[in-house]
Amino acid sequence: MALIRCEDVxxxxxxxxxxxxLDFSIGAGDYLCIVGENGSGKSTLVKSLLGxxxxxKGRIIYGDGLKKNEIGYLPQQTDxxxxxxxxxxxxxxxxxxxxxxxxxxxxxxxxxxAEEKLELLGIRDLAKQCYRELSGGQKQRxxxxxxxxxxxxxxxxxxxxxxxxxxxxxxxxxxxxxINRESGIAVVMVSHDIxxxxxxxxxxxxxxxxxxxxxxxxxxRKSRIGRRFLEGADKAENxxxxxx
Length: 244
Ligand code: ADP
Known about the structure:
Belongs to the ABC transporter superfamily. By secondary structure, the chain is of the alpha/beta class.
């Protein structure tokens, strides 16, 4: 059974539908990239997958024992988050909040999980440093460690490389690939970078008011819609129009 299945889902704000007719599923260990122009409903869908926003129509079904609060989430960066006045360790440890329930203090298992994730992401030496003093790339690693503390099954990343330079971006993508392949954690990533998406992801969901495409990255590359958008991305690099 799929971890998440969306059946005929439409989502909107105050009666105004933003994205409609979504029919797709995410399986264990999948790497799904959600692509589409600004305003096409990617972040709105993310909120619904996390259970933070009700759907207008259809249903989202969680399977394989996945609970909404066990999805590790790396939100889009806001200026407030960038200035968060806590140590890197505290930020990472806070990923355990959802699973802590009503217990007032972090357990030893929580602390061990935070230390393991710091090690995994190569930021153990930054543990005591203030989060707001980190570089953009280090901040994203800390937030990824935090998201990993919240899950064993699925990571949901909303435009995680925005504002990072190309080298740090490439390193971040490599890290995500490694986590996906080595630990089998399913990855759902909202991305503007359609070329990297097709290279790394197992599946592509392309939104534009509705579901323009859902299938494997290979199928997307061969599809009419995929070819059109990938050629658009090539042209954009040569000074042409960028479609997505
Ligand atoms: P994307 O992530 O693809 O850029 P969003 O999901 O953020 O798109 O937004 C999709 C549409 O929903 C946009 O037209 C946006 O203006 C609208 N929208 C987003 N958030 C809200 C909100 N809280 N209230 C009303 N409209 C919203």
